[in-house]
Every structure is written in C-alpha cells, then in structure tokens.
Automatic annotation (TrEMBL):
Coiled coil: none annotated. This is Transcription elongation factor GreA/GreB C-terminal domain-containing protein. InterPro entries: GreA/GreB_C_sf, Tscrpt_elong_fac_GreA/B_C. It holds the Pfam family GreA_GreB. Residues 82-156 form the Transcription elongation factor GreA/GreB C-terminal domain. It comes from Vibrio zhanjiangensis.
Length: 158
C-alpha cells in the first residue's frame, strides 16, 4: 500500500467533513438570525437555542480545519521497524484476519476504503494507539475498551 496515496484519500474525506461542517454552520447562523426566530415573549428561547447551535457548529468547523491542517503537514516515514506516527499497520486478530490502521495525529475513528481494504485512522492517544506505540512486527497487542478486551498481533508495519 502506498501511504502517500492513502493520506490523500484520508485528507479528501476530511475535506468533505469540513464542507459539511461549514454548511451546517451557515444554516445554523441563518436560522439564528431569521426573522421567524425573533422571540414573541420573554419565554420564547428559539433564537437563543439557534445561536447556541450556530456557535457549536462554528466550533466544529474550526476543529475540522485544525485537524485538516495537521493531517496535511504529517510527514510520512519510510522503512519503519516500530509503530509510530505516519505508519500503516496490519494487525491480525484471533481469526488471523488482517485489519489495517493508519497512525495519525488526529481524525481517530475515521474509516476510509483504499485498495479494496478498509483502513481506520488511529491516534496515539487512543487505547489502541497507546497499546501499539513503539511495538514491532510479531509483537502482541492487548488493550481494553470498557468491558471488552482486544488482542492482536502486529503483522505488517509500512
């Protein structure tokens, strides 16, 4: 797999999310400033609620912009022996099925399809990210999320 192409696919998905966040922000602002939201009495809070929504949407759009900038600045390492930022990792589960993970500074949980494989973006701050950081091919990876335990073995580091 080509990590530079994969990163471009991830950035494209993040750009789509940014556009959606910006459109949602614009719609929320329009709703908050619409003449139909003008309070009719002192207990009418529709305009106030709409302004809170607009603020929250604007904050989400800013977060998308920050994360997109971080991802665009990510340097892609080559010939990695240990899991680190910018690596693409294949983990084998108990059924010997390969699951691909891209280690990134942000956008954890984002899933993209690349070369007929699903790749999930993982941050080093996540439970899985903490468990695999610095590990090598053949190492076991065990971690827990809530009451669920996960066990993998590192098969490939690209």
């Amino acid at each position: 797999m080509n990590k530079i192409e994969l990163l471009q696919v991830i950035v494209l998905e993040m750009e789509k999310s940014l556009i959606i966040a910006q459109r949602s922000t614009q719609r929320a602002i329009e709703s908050a400033t619409d003449e139909e939201t003008v309070p009719e009495h002192k207990y009418d809070t529709l305009a106030l609620e709409a302004s809170y929504l607009a603020h929250g949407q604007a904050m989400r759009a800013e977060e998308c912009e920050r994360e997109l900038s971080q991802m665009k600045q990510l340097s892609i390492p080559t010939n990695m022996e240990h899991v680190a930022l910018g690596c693409l990792v294949c983990l084998l589960d108990d059924s010997d099925e390969c699951q691909w993970f891209f280690i990134a500074p942000c956008a954890g949980g984002l899933k993209v399809d690349y070369q007929q494989q699903q790749v999930m973006v993982v941050t080093l701050a996540s439970p899985l990210g903490k468990a695999i950081k610095g590990k090598s091919i053949g190492d076991d990876v065990d971690y827990q999320v809530g009451q669920t335990n996960f066990s993998y073995q590192i098969d490939t580091i690209i």
